[in-house]
Amino acid sequence: MSSSALLLFASSLAIGGIAFYAVRYLMPLWDKVGERYVADVRPMLESLSLTSDRMPDLLRWWGIAMAAVFVLFSIGLGMWPVAVAAVYLVYVAPKLYLTYMISRRATLLRDQLVGTVTALANATRAGLSLAQGIENVSNETPEPLKTELLRIVRDYRGGRPLAEALLQARDRLKLDGFTLFTSALLVSLERGGKITEALERISRSLQENQRLERKLEADTESGRKVVVMLAAFPAVFLGLFYFLNPEGIALLFTTILGQVVLVGVIVIVYAAVRWANRILKLEV
Q1: How many whole angstroms separate alpha carbon 46 and alpha carbon 172?
Q2: Nearest-5° angle of CA 246, CA 248, CA 250?
Q3: Which one of 34, 122, 164, 244 has the fewest CB atoms closer than 10 angstroms to its CB?
Q4: Residue 27 · residue 60 · CB < 8 Å
């Protein structure tokens, strides 16, 4: 057997041993790291009934992606400063995505609640009890609010008082509109009163709140578009300037100083986007 074949065989054994060690010993450790990483958003995922069953597998792929990005930029392309910045962007990407998904689902629940409360008021006006009305409306309500209403119905059928089921849903979701909805119903159930009239008042309040929130979102939409355009401008400018001076642009990728400058631009753009989004969020 030639020396090159022996070297190839030894390299294969070494890679196989490293892979075995990583799977056997490092994977459980990485699972603990990933669990701590998403610990602050997991309660929000569970409160909004967002499934997290595949979270361990996704976090493992996330770790593999970080390792692959580091190897690609540092060893493959020889861009060590850029490798650090790229790994950090991959590191923060899952939490940013989860936060976006949580915000999107909360907005969808808010919008669906307005029509659902109106339908529930019509159901109680037709002679149905509050529990029957919730069950009847839940069959016609789209996701994700349908899941929350069916959960209330399931708890009620399981022997839990309706007031307790509503209170648990309110504490789980922690949404302003749903809190207003359940609080008014709980007061009506405890002190008596006409449920239909209470639901109609809640429906009008939710519609007004929805109108105001949508107006604020529309007022800040132009600001969000400006943020996206400004964030994309350095990359577009770099691509256009490459056609004018390819040798100069190549220095950004082939020299350490150029790579440091490139990383500095990435850091400034990232910080500016986070800052701008925080300002826009405060305005909403």
Answers
A1: 8
A2: 65
A3: 244
A4: yes
**Which residue intervals of the chain are DSSP H helices?**
3-21, 27-37, 42-47, 55-71, 80-125, 130-138, 145-157, 162-173, 176-191, 195-244, 246-254, 256-283
Of 2-6, 152-156, 236-240, least confident by mean pLDDT is 2-6
> pTM for this structure?
0.70
3-state secondary structure 58-122: HHHHHHHHHHHHHHHHHHHCCCHHHHHHHHHHHHHHHHHHHHHHHHHHHHHHHHHHHHHHHHHHH
Residue 96 half-sphere exposure toward CB, CA atoms < 13 A: 11
- Mapped onto helix, strand or coil, the DSSP state of residue 41 is coil
Cβ-in-10-Å burial (0-12, 13-18, 19+) of 63 comes to: buried
Q: Give the Cα separation of 178 and 184 in Å (integer).
A: 10
Residue with tokens 């789980």: 172
**DSSP state at residue 24:** I
* Distance, CA of 236 to CA of 230 (rounded, Å): 10
pLDDT band for position 47 (cuts 50, 70, 90):
low
Judge contact between 59 and 34, C-beta under 8 A: yes
Q: Kindly report the CA angle at 98 between 109 and 175, in degrees rounded to 5?
A: 30
List pLDDT tens digits, range 64-81. Answer: 888 888 888 888 888 888
Tokens 């069916």 label which residue? Answer: 150
